[in-house]
Write a structure and sequence with these properties.
By secondary structure, the chain is an alpha+beta fold. It has one domain: Up-down Bundle (Outer membrane efflux proteins (OEP)), CATH 1.20.1600.10. The protein is 62% helix and 15% strand. It contains nine helices and four strands. A four-stranded antiparallel sheet has the order 1-2-3-4, with no helix packed on it. Strand 3 and strand 4 form a beta hairpin. Helix 1 packs antiparallel against helix 2. The protein starts with a helix and ends in an 8-residue tail after the last helix.
Length: 395
C-alpha cells in the first residue's frame, strides 16, 4: 500500500519550503598598510512548487500499476491465510487420528494380554503348547512396540500446530474430539466462480494487469515531458527588512530523450517481457486451480470406496477370527490360525483410522482448492496481541 502511494504521488504538485542565511566577512589590504573589513548578511525565505503535466499518462500508468500491485499483495496475504488455516485443520485431524490409534493400541494390548493369560492357563492344563505361549507373547510385545511411535508423532504434531498458531512448542494442548464425519460435498460452482474465489488466481490476474500498466508507463517515458515550476521568496540583509524584497518566478521546461544508448527502449522491452511472464504465471495459476479441485474430488471419491472395502475386510477378518478361536478351543487347529487372524484384525483397525483421516484431509484439500472470500474479513493483529508471548507449560 505504501508503494502504491509512492507510485501515485507524481499526480500531485510538490511544494517545498526554502530558507537560507549567509554571513560573509571580506578583508581588504589598503596601500598605506591599513585594512578594511566588509561584513554582509543575507536572509531568504520562500516556497518552491513543481508539477509535471502528465501528457502521455506516464504517471497515471505508474499509479494504476502500483494500486494493482497493492491489491495483489492483499490477495497474497489471503492465500497465505487460507494455506495456514488449511494446515491448522489438517494438523488437528492428524492429532486426533494419532490419539485414536493410541486408544486402539491400548485396547489391543489388553486383548492380547487376555489371550495370553488364557493360553498360559491352557498350557498349564496341557491343552496348549509352549510355542502357542511364545507366539502370543511376541504378539503382545509387537503391539506394545507400536505405541511409542504413535505417542511421539502426536507430540510432534502438537509442536507443529503450535508453530502454525504462532506459539512456542510445548505451550499448546487440545482436547480429544475424535474424527468428525463428513457432510455432503460442497458445490464446486461454475469455472468462473472458482477463478473468482481463489486468492492466488486473483493475485496473478492483478499482477498481470499491473504489468500491462507498467508497459504503458515505459512507453510513455520515451516521450517528452513538460514540467512547471514556480518559486516565491523574500530576501533581505537584515531580518527587519526581510519582507521588503520579494521575488516571484514561474517557469516551464520541456525535456525529451534524444540519445540514451537504447536505455528507454530496453525498458519497454523489459516491461513487455515481465508482462509475458505474468501472463504465463496467470495461466499456470488457473490450470493449477482446476487441477487441485479435480484431484481433491477424485481422491475423496476413491478414498470412500477404499474405506468401504477396508470396513468389509475388517468384518470378514473378525468373522475369521471367531471361527479360528472356535476351532482352536475344539482342538481342531493349532494356535497359528488364531494368531494370524488376530494380527489381521488389529492391523485393519489401525488402517481404518488412517483411511478415515486421509478422507478428511482430502476434504480439507478440496475446500482449500475451492478458495473463498472469508479471508477478506481478516484484520491485522493488534499491538498488544503481538507483544503477548505465551509461556511454555510443563509436560
Amino acid at each position: 500500500r505504501a508503494s502504491a502511494v509512492q507510485a501515485g504521488a507524481g499526480l500531485y504538485p510538490t511544494l517545498d519550503a526554502t530558507g537560507g542565511y549567509t554571513h560573509t566577512r571580506q578583508g581588504t589590504e589598503a596601500q598605506g598598510g591599513g585594512r578594511s573589513m566588509t561584513v554582509t548578511e543575507d536572509h531568504s525565505l520562500g516556497l518552491s512548487a513543481g508539477y509535471e503535466v502528465d501528457l502521455w499518462n506516464r504517471i497515471g500508468s505508474a499509479a494504476k500499476s502500483g494500486a494493482l500491485k497493492a491489491e495483489a499483495g492483499r490477495e497474497d496475504v489471503n492465500a497465505a491465510a487460507m494455506t495456514v488455516a488449511g494446515e491448522v485443520a489438517a494438523k488437528w485431524v492428524e492429532i486426533q487420528a494419532q490419539r485414536r490409534k493410541k486408544a486402539i493400541l491400548q485396547e489391543q494390548i489388553k486383548v492380547n494380554r487376555t489371550y495370553l493369560e488364557l493360553i498360559e492357563l491352557r498350557f498349564r492344563n496341557a491343552l496348549a503348547t509352549a510355542l502357542d505361549v511364545y507366539q502370543q507373547r511376541e504378539n503382545v510385545a509387537r503391539v506394545k512396540a507400536e505405541l511409542p511411535p504413535v505417542e511421539s508423532e502426536e507430540r510432534i504434531l502438537l509442536h507443529e500446530l503450535a508453530l502454525l498458531l504462532g506459539r512456542p512448542a510445548g505451550s499448546l494442548d487440545i482436547e480429544d474430539a475424535g474424527l468428525p464425519e463428513l457432510n455432503d460435498l460442497p458445490g464446486a460452482g461454475l469455472p468462473s466462480d472458482l477463478l473468482a474465489n481463489r486468492p492466488d488466481v486473483r493475485s496473478a490476474g492483478l499482477k498481470l494487469r499491473a504489468a500491462d500498466w507498467s508497459v504503458a508507463e515505459a512507453r510513455a517515458n520515451r516521450l517528452p515531458s513538460l514540467t512547471l515550476t514556480g518559486q516565491g521568496a523574500y530576501s533581505g540583509a537584515q531580518l527587519t527588512n526581510l519582507f521588503d524584497n520579494w521575488l516571484l518566478s514561474l517557469a516551464g521546461s520541456v525535456m525529451g530523450p534524444i540519445l540514451d544508448g537504447g536505455y528507454r527502449e530496453a525498458a519497454v522491452e523489459k516491461a513487455r517481457g515481465e508482462a509475458d511472464e505474468q501472463l504465463a504465471d496467470y495461466k499456470s495459476a488457473v490450470y493449477t486451480a482446476f487441477k487441485e479441485v479435480e484431484d481433491a474430488l477424485a481422491r475423496e471419491r476413491w478414498q470412500k470406496k477404499y474405506l468401504q472395502a477396508h470396513e468389509t475386510q475388517l468384518q470378514a477378518a473378525r468373522t475369521s477370527l471367531d471361527e479360528a478361536i472356535s476351532r482352536y478351543r475344539q482342538g481342531l487347529d493349532d494356535y497359528l490360525p488364531v494368531l494370524s487372524a488376530l494380527m489381521t484384525v488389529q492391523d485393519l483397525e489401525l488402517a481404518l483410522v488412517e483411511d478415515h483421516k486421509n478422507l478428511i484431509l482430502y476434504r480439507i484439500a478440496l475446500h482449500r482448492a475451492l478458495g473463498g472470500g472469508w479471508t477478506n474479513e481478516l484484520q491485522p493483529p493488534q499491538a498488544e496481541e503481538l507483544a503477548a508471548t505465551p509461556q511454555p507449560t510443563e509436560g
